[in-house]
Amino acid sequence: MNDIKYSIMKSKKMYFLWMGLCLIFSYSTYAQPEFVKGNDPKPLGTSWEMRTDVSDEFEGETLDLAKWKNTDPKRWIGRAPGLFKENTVSINNGNMCITNYLLEKEEVVNGQTFTHGCGHVISQNSVKVGEYIECRMKANKTFLSSTFWLINYRNEQEGCDRRVTELDIQECVGQLTDPKSWNDNFDQSMHSNTHSRNVTCDTPTGSIGNNVELSSGKVYDDFHVYGAWWKSENEILFFLDGIYQYTVTPAAPFSIDLYIKLVTETYDWNPTPEDGGMTGNWEDRTTRYDWVRTWKLSNKNVEETVGFNEAPNNVPPAKSFAFKIDYVANEKRDVVVELWSAGKVLQKASKTVEKGFGTTSITLELDEMLPPGNNYTWKVNLRPVGEETNIYDEVIENVIITSGPVLSIDGSEGVKVAVFPNPAENTVTVEVPKGKYEVDIYNVKGQKVVHKTIKNKSKIDVSTLKSGAYILKIQSTQMSHSFNFIKK
Predict the structure, then answer these.
(1) pTM for this structure?
(2) What does DSSP assign to residue 476?
């Protein structure tokens, strides 16, 4: 079971590296933003540090009024027929909830008639250029909106900055009431926008945005993480569930500090249904915000790590072996790969990497062909440049060098095994010689998720497994072998 245990640990490590090289802890309580590998927007050598004054996990019993305002009638009462009401907002099971409802009777405010209670929550503090803002939200199922956006207060500025800039990260509705609506995918997509308006000088006005459909259906089917990196005054990058989607250049520079808004409201292009649209239960009428997090860039040191992204195993004898190494370094470092056997270093190769994080390639060259066996060890070390002291290392033991295509662990008669395709979508094909074999599949937590007894060539159904890394183990009285594979 040791080979399975290590393989599971290795696959788990690889899986989380794919989900973001920088899943290291910041100097706040919570982990840094999670990005799919290759989509972390921050510059090398920096880390994300949480701004706790504009972040909230909503773990209390009531809304934290030191961080948020619940409605702001002096500035905005809502768009008729939706009137902002304090009683729409609650904290429930770790979520900030805005629960929309039909008013008992119409209310006329400032000459406008309102029939629905909606929510308007605003941050007490503003966010700035260069920061990353994200929230995990599940939309309500009604014709009302579910939104996450930022805006400035015009009356706080002077001169040419006495204008309005608005950054919409996500705007959506749960029900489209006009089948001819130009926003025909507003219930199943991430809609982002930038607005420049109410200008006093020659500042350009206009709205520029983009959108992308969700992969999981409607906006109310599940929680999604909507985020934007306000990289500069003229460049805003948008992310959905940690994956980069698009970049928007606003019509005018976004240089003014903005306040976060969590709002449900009515849109004039999405009319109120004849029955009022509030016939659903509490869950249907509620927009849930699991958390809101704001991050600023920091040059503080982070935890340094190194590990194998790809390392040869179960490969034929060779004089050259190629590795891919993931690393996080606070300053220029040496990455050293070593081949061990019988407690001795047989060969090593190194490469110097710059401060930051990434993946580097290293090739280890041998003077002679490495003979078959299973007593080899790969080791990768992160060291100060020119020194022998390890800051961090990772070891793979019991590396197998095979005699050609034959895979044999226990030294008995060779057994030819094939597993394909990899990555797999619906089925994995396992080819083995005649005989009875047990096939087990383990997830990254080491839990057995599939078990099947096979003979000869068989197909294993993996269609119900979640996307990610898995270990497939094949056993018989003659052999035991494990394969890493990826479920699409």
Answers:
(1) 0.63
(2) -
What SS3 class is residue 458? Answer: strand
User: What long-range pairs does 421-424 form, CB within 8 A, spacing at least 24?
Assistant: 422/483, 422/485, 422/486, 423/485, 423/486, 423/487, 423/488, 424/462, 424/485, 424/486, 424/487, 424/488
Distance, CA of 147 to CA of 154 (rounded, Å): 21
3-state secondary structure of 287: strand
Rounded to an integer, what distance in angstroms lies between the CA atom of residue 169 and that of residue 289? 14
Catalytic residue IDs:
166, 171
CB 226 within 8 A of CB 170: yes
Q: What is the dihedral of CA 27, 32, 37, 39, to 10 degrees?
A: -110
The number of angstroms, rounded, from the C-alpha of 444 to the middle of its chain's C-alpha atoms is 17
- The three-point CA angle 270-266-191 to 5° equals 70
Residue 403: strand, helix, or coil: strand
Q: How far is CA 110 from the centre of its chain?
A: 44
Quick: pLDDT tens for 321-361. Answer: 999 998 888 889 999 999 999 889 999 999 999 887 788 99
